[in-house]
Amino acid sequence: MSAHRGERRNNGPVSCIPHILFRNSVFCVVVDTMKKKPPLASLTPEERDARLKKIIMSGLGKAWMFWPPRNEVKRRCAIVFNNESGWFRCELCKREVQKIDVDHIIPCIKPSDGFTSWDDFINSRFVLADKLQGICTTCHKLKTKEENRQRREMKRVRKM
Ligand SMILES: [Zn+2]
Fold first, then answer.
1. Domain ranges of the chain
2. pLDDT at position 5
3. How remote is the CA of residue 45 from the centroid of ligand 1, in Å?
4. How far is the CA of 153 from the centre of ligand 1 (A)?
5. Closest C-alpha among 67, 60, 70, 65 to residue 134
6. How does 9-24 read in b/e, with b if 16+ C-beta sit within 10 Å?
7. pLDDT, tens digit, for every residue of 85-137?
8. What is the 86 CA–ligand 1 centroid distance (Å)?
9. Residues 88, 74: contact at Cβ < 8 Å?
10. Ligand 1 centre and the CA of 58: distance in Å?
11. Predicted pLDDT at 124
């Protein structure tokens, strides 16, 4: 048995790496699951709702990637030069950038109302290109920061 092990070790460290990586990733996943995600049955109804909401949100996030108006916005922002594009013009700051984010002009979850219903959320998320804008990462970050500030402010006001 030990000879067998020695033999395997002699195959060189390279062949061990995937095994170690695999074992480590399985270990991490197991630890992760134990730490962060207790079984659904052990959760309170509120916690279960929160988990379900997260799962549906992430599914809708993936569906959003396939929403055709996204491409319309990207085409709208594309700077075509010699029939080649690759650069975009940000619709807010008008700078030329290499990466453009498709953003909802009116946030899917309005800071003033918070999450109301799935119908509201889906209807405000999956909108046509006229309700979307192509913006650069800098503008996107600033806009998100401002929306989050408004959300915190609304939360504070509601608590009072
Ligand atoms: Zn910009």
1. 68-160
2. 47
3. 42
4. 25
5. 70
6. eeeeeeeeeeeeeeee
7. 689 999 999 999 999 999 999 999 999 899 999 999 999 999 999 999 999 99
8. 16
9. yes
10. 26
11. 97
Residue 1: its pLDDT value, please?
Answer: 43
Angstrom distance (rounded) from CA 135 to CA 156: 30
How far does residue 131's CA lie from ligand 1's centre (Å)? 17
Supply the pLDDT for residue 24: 54
Gap from CA of 76 to ligand 1 centroid (Å): 15
Task: Write the secondary structure of 102-156 as one string of H (helix), E (strand) and C (coil).
Answer: EEECCCCCCCCCCCCCHHHHHHHHCCCHHHEEEECHHHHHHHHHHHHHHHHHHHH
Report the number of secondary-structure helices (H) and strands (E) in the chain.
6, 5
Residue 124 Cα to ligand 1 midpoint, Å, equals: 22
Cα(97) to centroid(ligand 1), Å = 8
Output 63 or 38, whichever has higher pLDDT: 63
